[in-house]
Amino acid sequence: MRLLSHLLKRFVEKGQLSVITVDGVRHVFGSGVDGPSVTVRMHDKKLERDLFLNPELVSAEAYMDGRLTFEDGAGVFDLLNLFSVNRKGLGAHPVQQALRKGWRALRRFHQANPIAKAKENASSHYDHPAEFYRLWLDETMAYSCAYFSEPDEPLADAQRNKFRHVAAKLKLTPGMRVAEIGSGWGGLSIYLAKTCGVHVTAINVSAEQLAESRRLAEAAGVADSIDFREMDYRDLKGPFDRVVSIGMMEHVGVHHFDAYFTTIRDLLGPGGFALVHAIGRMSPPGTTAPFIRKYIFPGGYVPALSEVFASTERTHLWVADMEVLRLHYYWTIRAWR
């Protein structure tokens, strides 16, 4: 417990973390003020070493497999809140800093996304039955940040707000040809075809999502207006009047940003423009958190704005508008919870 104690003494300043080891000894860290109090119990002696080397990933995996449990009424969200208020201390130990430098050096390898690998990564996350996603998504099946008119608005209403907001920003008129890169479960494409009278070419590399999207489009009466294709974005050909990409850029990988934006540029006809909606990081350019990289965005990366705009400049695209939806994403995740 010596190494882990040394790390936690540096990390936990606000709130309090109590760790009960396998031998039943309770170790307490933190001031107990300005943050939550969390008690965890370790059921595996090896956890002490593993948590020291990779606390972000190992704590999550240990919770999933039962090697780490919560006590005294605490839960996983309390631990996440504790991590959040002590964010500056995470990774402060010299050994962890060295490991982070190593992860950053391997960033190109972790985010390598040639076409075959991109499909494999997407399949690992999205090729699960629609019934699984229905357990926690709303009826629109939108798996991205909603747009709330007020924090407690029902999620389905907020997702429809997002569809309307996207359509308004795209300035669509009937008959336009729209490309959607990364169409998910088809909700946005169906909305645009049904409400705006446009023809949508919607591409996705998830066979499961495409099959469900076609079924939903048929049920909505717009199957003839949407061409769902199993295709990598790099293979799509234009021209289109508009391009929209919601929640897709996180899967691209930073070293493929130029290819992504070049594709968008080349898809647009004269006078055309695109809307890209993605998660962004609060911090400067870095690495993807290990848990996110392994379980949420395999091969992906949540970019800093500086990386996004540098890529649009290199690919000769003009940024005409930017909107930050940080609290909207918090409200979305809260609803999914």
Précis, in short:
The protein is of the alpha/beta class. It has helices at residues 2-11, 47-53, 55-65, 76-85, 94-105, 107-110, 115-126, 130-134, 155-170, 187-196, 207-220, 257-267, 290-296, 305-314, 326-336, and strands at residues 16-20, 26-29, 37-42, 68-71, 177-181, 199-204, 226-230, 240-246, 268-277. The chain has two domains: 2-101; 115-336, 3-Layer(aba) Sandwich (Rossmann fold).
Topology:
Layout: H1 2-11, E1 16-20, E2 26-29, E3 37-42, H2 47-53, H3 55-65, E4 68-71, H4 76-85, H5 94-105, H6 107-110, H7 115-126, H8 130-134, H9 155-170, E5 177-181, H10 187-196, E6 199-204, H11 207-220, E7 226-230, E8 240-246, H12 257-267, E9 268-277, H13 290-296, H14 305-314, H15 326-336
Parallel strand pairs: 1-3, 5-6, 5-8, 6-7, 8-9
Antiparallel strand pairs: 1-2, 3-4
Structure commentary:
The two termini are about 35 Å apart. α2 (about 45-55) packs antiparallel against α3 (about 55-65) and α12 crosses α14. This protein has 2 domains: about 1-100; about 115-335, Vaccinia Virus protein VP39 (Rossmann fold, 3-Layer(aba) Sandwich), CATH 3.40.50.150. It has about 325 residues and is α/β, with parallel strands linked by helices. The strands form 2 sheets. It has a 5-stranded parallel sheet with strand order 7-6-5-8-9. A 4-stranded mixed sheet has the order 2-1-3-4. The protein is elongated and about 70 Å long. The protein contains 15 helices and 9 strands.
